[in-house]
Design goal:
The chain is of the alpha+beta class and 249 residues long. Helices cover 62% and strands 11% of the residues. It is built from twelve helices and six strands. The strands form two sheets. It has a four-stranded mixed beta sheet with strand order 2-1-5-6, with helices on both faces. A two-stranded antiparallel sheet has the order 3-4. Helix 1 packs parallel to helix 12, helix 6 packs parallel to helix 8 and helix 7 crosses helix 8. This is DsbA family protein. InterPro entries: Thioredoxin-like_sf.
Length: 249
């Protein structure tokens, strides 16, 4: 067991070393198309964290707005049961946890909105403080919802999560109460977020992509779309998939 763990750790370290070499030789960018309330996007969170660690500063989050605005809805009992069945399938396939707390406190609670608009605005707000915090905030929002059972359509909940992510990174300037007010009613933040979503949707139309998550790897003038096993197989699989493309590009 220890030998296998040692080999696995060596492989991960080697892949990160090769990633740095290939980044210097072959500049590229990674764009991740997602929605904060997408269960399959949560399934790809370990892959995203691995890519962010292997290629710091390269990853750009592209909010699709899938479940915002006209895509938002009341979380009815019927929709909640549909979501839970889909979530159980995701857990069986990927190992990502969807807890009893999430089912009872979010899906079955009543009066809950299925609306990713507030989460998209929270992500944009923290990105404005430090772009490096956006990916960790997305993961924290997902864990708060699917594991802790928090309603991540609520501005106050999102603001507390964002302030915690910032504090953990040594950023102490994010006030949760002020941020909650911005998420709920700041016109400039809403406009910025709407602009990001519009740009993402244009890019998805150009790619012919209709769903999320999707990862676009651009090397020079060429783009490569990664999805499926490349995103749901964890950090090492995602890093390896990107490296294969870089080697062939």
């Amino acid at each position: 067991m220890y030998l296998i763990d040692w080999i696995s750790n060596r492989l991960v370290s080697l892949s990160f070393f090769l990633s740095e070499r290939m980044t210097a030789m072959n500049p590229f960018r990674l764009q991740y198309f997602f929605d904060p309330l997408c269960g399959w996007c949560y399934a790809s969170a370990p892959a995203l964290a691995g890519l962010d660690a292997a290629h710091p500063g390269v990853l750009e989050l592209m909010p699709s707005g899938l479940f915002a605005d006209e895509g938002a809805r009341e979380l009815t009992p019927e929709w909640g049961e549909y979501a839970w069945r889909n979530d159980q399938r995701i857990e069986q396939m990927t190992g990502q946890r969807f807890t009893h707390a999430y089912r009872e406190q979010v899906l079955r609670r009543g009066g809950v909105r299925f609306d990713s608009g507030p989460a998209n605005r929270a992500l944009s707000a923290l990105r404005g403080v430090d772009a490096r915090l956006e990916r960790p905030l997305l993961e924290a929002i997902q864990l708060a919802r699917y594991v802790d059972g928090l309603d991540t359509a609520r501005p106050d909940v999102l603001a507390r999560i964002a302030a915690g992510v910032a504090a953990n990174a040594g950023v102490t300037t994010v006030d949760a109460d002020a941020l909650a007010r911005r998420i709920e009613g700041d016109a400039a933040l809403a406009s910025e977020t709407a602009g990001r979503i519009a740009r993402t949707q244009r890019a998805m139309r150009q790619l012919g992509a209709s769903g999320v998550p999707q990862l676009l790897l651009t090397v020079g003038e060429r783009g490569y779309v990664l999805h499926g096993a490349s995103l749901y197989g964890g950090a090492q699989a995602a890093v390896a998939a990107v490296e294969r493309v870089l080697q062939e590009a």
